[in-house]
Amino acid sequence: xxSVLGWMFxxxxxxxxxxxxxxxxxxxGWRLALAVATLGAGVGLYRKRQEAERAKQRQRADRARxxxxxxxxxxxxxxxxxxERELGKWNRD
Length: 93
What we know:
By secondary structure, the chain is mostly helical. It has four helices and no strands.
């Protein structure tokens, strides 16, 4: 009994969605239940896609941070003349 309650607590969103579909079926029949289920699936897919995009953005930010730290370390290891020479390559007259 506790394992079922634990599962329901862990998957609260699924229990809520099934309750909404059941309520829609009771109120409006199978067509309304199908509409609510379709809408719920669409919202779920949208949120999953957004979560994946946020994960990609975090990966890009981490990679950029690592690149920045690597460049800062290499510049920090150079002498002032070496830094000026390297910067001189990028300056335009």
